[in-house]
Amino acid sequence: AYDMLIVGGGPAGAAAAVYAARKGIRVGVAAERFGGQTNDTMAIENYISVLETDGPKFAAALEQQVRHYEVDIMNLQRATKVVPASVAGGLLTVEMENGGALRARSVILSTGARWRNVNVPGEQEYKNKGVAYCPHCDGPLFKGKRTAVIGGGNSGIEAAIDLAGIVEHVTVIEFADQLKADAVLVNKLNSLPNVTVHTNAQTMEITGDGSVVNGIRFKDRTTGVEQHVALAGVFVQIGLVPNTEFLKETIELSKFGEIIVDAKGHTNVPGVLAAGDCTTVPYKQIVIAAGEGAKAALSAFDYLIRTPAA
Ligand code: FAD
């Protein structure tokens, strides 16, 4: 059995593993895909102390640092269930898709999240070639260019306001008949000179020239009339889905499916902590996930030294 088992090998899980291993305890990391979302990222320019890197390089560096320590890395392993200990201080069980089960005195959940796709032609083809999901990350790449935001909820309107300060013009496309964002955000958006809002608008296609995005085609749902707008970037902002479906029965989740954690990363189950994009901690970013992972490992270690093993 492990002293600490980390489920998920993105920035949060990797940071937790490094912090845990340095305590000299038995540590395992089970991850469906080591590196997590950073594998899918082009340029990373906001990880402090690293001026610029790319996703695959960053993911490889995460793994290299974890491998520097005595950590069991179980890559390509998907967890399907967490079973709490039957007695205080007892072993927790993490059931795996391959039929196996891993046992540990403490578990850190760092399974991350995934952006909801709009599933129109062009989205997959031009991912990272004009199709983006994170305005904090990729907004500056479109400085002085025209962009669109798909989604008129809080994240979409926050993204549009953020982008309007950087890019030349923002087209907001919302499927429903009105923007769902908070009134204060909508008012702020309406005060900006370089934003156009289309409600009742269905995105039909993200168009490109074969190498990068060159526009977006959408349909007015009341008239059926289609329109094509020329632009360089499309931010898809229709939701971030935490990878927590498998936890529903045991771990307390928010209405958005995020694992509810306290300031130290504890969940509702003793010995189970969580960190990164899968939690209620706001602002889903690499530097934040890494910090939260380190914090969860320190909290778990604190739990281990204070809880007599059953
Ligand atoms: P993730 O990176 O999502 O890692 C989750 C891990 O858990 C993975 O190893 C996954 O395989 C594993 N996992 C999931 N479910 C299971 C399961 N059931 N069993 C076992 N393992 C499981 N942030 C920035 O700061 N700067 C950027 O420039 C930036 N650009 C981005 C660009 C793109 C295209 C995307 C998608 C995201 C970007 N982000 C960026 C966000 C950043 O990648 C995330 O905030 C960060 O990766 C979150 O780290 P995490 O460890 O919490 O989760």
TrEMBL record:
Which Cys residues form disulphide pairs? 134-137
Gene Ontology terms, MF aspect:
flavin adenine dinucleotide binding; NAD binding; NADH-dependent peroxiredoxin activity; oxidoreductase activity, acting on a sulfur group of donors, NAD(P) as acceptor
The cofactor(s) it depends on are: FAD
**Source organism, top-level taxon:** Bacteria
- Binding site residues for FAD: 3-18, 267-277
Which terms under GO biological process does the entry name?
response to reactive oxygen species
What Enzyme Commission number(s) does the record list for this chain?
1.8.1.-
Entry's cofactor comment: Binds 1 FAD per subunit.
Q: Name one GO cellular component term.
A: protein-containing complex
Note whether Zinc-finger occurs among the keywords: no
Domain (FAD/NAD(P)-binding) spans: 2-293
Q: How does it assemble?
A: Homodimer.
Name of the protein described by the UniProt record: Alkyl hydroperoxide reductase subunit F
Task: Report the source organism.
Answer: Zwartia hollandica
